[in-house]
Structures are given as C-alpha cells and as structure tokens.
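BUG: 3D viewer hangs when loading the predicted structure for this chain

Environment: internal workstation, default settings.
Expected: structure renders.
Actual: progress bar stalls at 90%.

Input used:
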Amino acid sequence: MMNKSTLVLSFLLVFFTSMLSAQIGPDTYFIQFSDKNDSPYSINEPEAFLTQRAIERRMAQNIEIIEQDIPVNPAYIEAVAAEGPGMLFPSKWLNGVTIQTSNQAVLDAINALPFVVSVRTLSSADNPPIVKEKLFFTNESISDEHAPFVKSQHGPGWINYGNGYTQIHQINGIPLHANGFKGEGMVIALLDGGYSNTDVHPAFDSLWINGQILGTKDFVQPGGDVFTQSSHGTAVLSTIGANVPGQLVGTAPKAAFWLLRSEYVFSENLIEEYNWVSAAEFADSVGADIINSSLGYITFDMPEHDHTHEDMDGNTCIVTIGADIAASKGILVVNSAGNSGSNSQYPYIGAPADGFDVFSIGAVDGDGNRASFSSQGPTFDGRLKPDVMARGQGTAVASGSSSFGSSNGTSFSSPIIAGMSACLWQANPEFTNLDIKNAIMQSGSRASNPDNFMGHGIPDYMLANTILTSLRQQKEKKPQLIKVYPNPFGNQVKVLALDTTIHSVVVYDLEGRLLARIDNNIAPEAVLEGVLNQLHAGVFIIHVFSNNHQQVLKVVKGLK
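Structure tokens produced before the viewer hung:
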C-alpha cells in the first residue's frame, strides 16, 4: 500500500493546486439507478460491450454473460448530464455513475429523475485534500538504497535476476521461468495511484519495445495522464515486468499490462472505491486475466465514511463488492493485505482484501519471517486472511527515472504473487482463476496449519504446478513418462524412463519442500534412483517434464 506522506510530497508543489480544483473542488456523488430497462445493449450481443478476449475468458471458465455485464443505460447518463454536473465514470456492476457538482439545485434535479434511486456523497469541498498517513499505508516506503546484492544461482534456462533473485526464489518460481513460462499471453491490469517514469525507466524498455504495455486509462480524472503524481505503480509494475538481467527481473517479464489509475494520492475519499470498481470493469472488458491492486481502504478524510472491522465481512465495502464481482467474471484478483499489522487499534486487513474470492497477500522479509506491519485476519465473519505471503520487506523495485532500490509494504508482495500466478496460469490454461488461487494456497509452507498472521504461508509455485498437473491427470489419462517400481519400495527402487525427451525431474516431500531437481540429464532414471534411495521413509511427489507432456506420481518409501 502507498505511504501517502512518503510518496506524495515530491509531487505536492507541482500538482496540488491544479488537482485541487480539478478533482476535489466540487463535491462528488454516486448516482444510483434503478434498472437497465430499455437498454440498447443485450446479453445476446456481448461483442458490443466486451472484447473478444473478455468473452473467451468467460467461455473458457463456463461463466455466463448476465444483465450485470450490460453497460449503464446511456439514456440515464445523458439525462443526468443534462442537469449540468461534471460527469465522471459509470459503473455497470453497481448500475450508476459518479458526478461532481457544488450546486444543490443540480442535485435536487437529478434526484427527481424517475430512474434515480439515491444520491450518495463521496467527497466534500468542506474536507479539502489532507496529505497524511493513513492507517492502511503506514510503514510503506520506497528508497534508492539497495538491499545487499544477491547473485543468482544458475541452471539451464535460468536468468540472472539480480536483486530480484530472493523474492522469486523464495516462492520457487524460477523453475517455471526455466521451463518457458514467463507470462507470455497473459494480461495483467494494475490498479494504482500513478506510474511516474514508467514511460522512461530502463526497467521497462522491453515492455515498450515489445508492445507489452497495452494501454493506460485514468479513472481519477477523465482523460488524465497516468504518468504523473505518484511512482507507486511504477515500483509495483517493476516487481512483475522489470527485465534487466543482472539488476532486476520481475516475476512475469513477458506478460502484457494495462496501467490504470484509480487512486487519487492527495486525499482519501470514498469516491476512490467507486473509481476502483470502474477500473476493474474496464479491466474485465478488455480481457485482463489478472488484476493486481496494491490499494486498500480503511479510513477517509470524511470520518463518517471510515470502515470498521465489522465492515470487513466480504459484503459491505463497495470496493470489496466490486472485487468479488471481478472474480466472478473469471479474473484472478490479487490484492495487498495492508500495512496495519503493528497498529494496536486496527491490525486487520482493509477492503477489498476481505473479499471472499480476492487473493489477499501479506508480507515477509527475505528470510521468510512475517513483516511486523503486515495486516492480519480474520475477517469479521471469521474467515482466515491473508491467503498467502511473499516478500514485502526489502523488496527489490525500480525507483526514480533510471535507478533501482528497495521497498517495504504489502503493495510489493502482492504484485510478486500476481506475476508468478500469471506464469502458473500460462502453464495451466485450462484451469479457472479460483483453481489457480486454490493450488497456490495448497502449496503454501503453512498449508497444513494456516493462521491469521501468515495465512497459508509462502507458496511454492512448482508445487502448485504439480498440484494442477495431478488434477489434470485425474481428469484425463496422460502417457506415462517414467515408471517407479516397486511402489511402495524399501531398500532399493528402480526407475524406467518411458520417454526419450524427458528434460526435468523434480522431487518434493508432502510439505512442499524441494528435495531434488534433475535438469537435462542424459540418464535421469539412474540419477532419480540415487535420489530416492537416499531418502528417509516417507511419501514423496515426483514431477516429470518432457517436451510434450508432464507426469506427477506419488511414491512411498518404507523403512529399510
């Protein structure tokens, strides 16, 4: 999450005056409509409001197109606009539109329209922008000071990750990259507060050169420039998309990105939750597979809008409702848990991390210890949160216009997971967003004993891949690549290779710990026999990769 006092001050003198008049001058409101009657749109012609990619994502996951997907009736929007307010953004999922006006007569006229159910105040000119630290953004920072450089270990097809090595190695994501899964064909939408220097920083050269930045859109100011006001989104993007070997390589350097601005960094008002929903709707419509949101909401400049722990029930906060709707459309919604963990009054997660299907990510340091600031669960209704953890203390990021540094905050653990999840989904495209989420949680270091501080622990992405491969094999018979016999075995075991194109063999225990990896060996059966014969008694998972297939098998070793 953004530490607003840290990130905003450098931009304050330049932007405060202009943005004060543009965004906060008039009061802002949400106009709730009653229905979508007489709409020119139809669920039978979704191509009028969804891209082909968005339609295909629904088809792949057997998700129906429903009335909720239909845009707000344009006649209703035109009627509201005719009364003279400044028009902001519609929301088809919430069936309404945000506006700005300081004229009570305009509000009265809008409220009198027959299809208007209610008018909700979202920000007030009586509460001018307050640049202060919010509970949700405490303990977050970005600096140009590097963490100690860690030289990458190398194997066939591996990359020199530079200072990004620890954060991807910690979640065992490097083997997925080595097997060719770096996010190609996956689309990630970032919802954030700004992307200053993303258009010039060398960390993103390959993204621009290869057309991986698909577009931008500002949901704070209509027609605004997302490359201003904050570099928070730049740092977030770098944990996924940076591609400077030897310096920083992200978790999905070949993915494609939409850069969306929903957060106004100079104040905290309820309108930002509505901005978030409008941005998520856009991400859905353009076919995004994953949303990363390093944002969260607890307290506001208008105290009457503040959230309490009771609101963290998955059903109350507007942004949480929107996030779960996004997940229902087949999008993997990844969200920072928050940075309130060391706050004695409110140590809990914020919205939308409380969502039922939102993938909520806490923070650990490079050694796997929970960061003290990482927000904790449970939700008010008793569900366990966060879901999993990744590095959010000392995370390697891009900073400034050309430098690299480190960062603290669950804002940076979330995109690490979002990017690696894109690679996992690329490797297993037939599964749904929730299948991917569940496999990652099952691979966690604390999956057998999760809690409200560490969730399911630190995931192991190769183990998650193994879990999905096993599920796939249960659904359809695949050719055997190796045979292990006898099974169970005692003093000696034999391995027979049934495929000449085997290139990798990985051995895990049931806790997800990597015990051995055999790459590009001309005699994998002999090497695997040696590995298995050296193991203590127990149950083990073997994952075999060939040029065309994968095989997962469970073996049991008894006492010698």
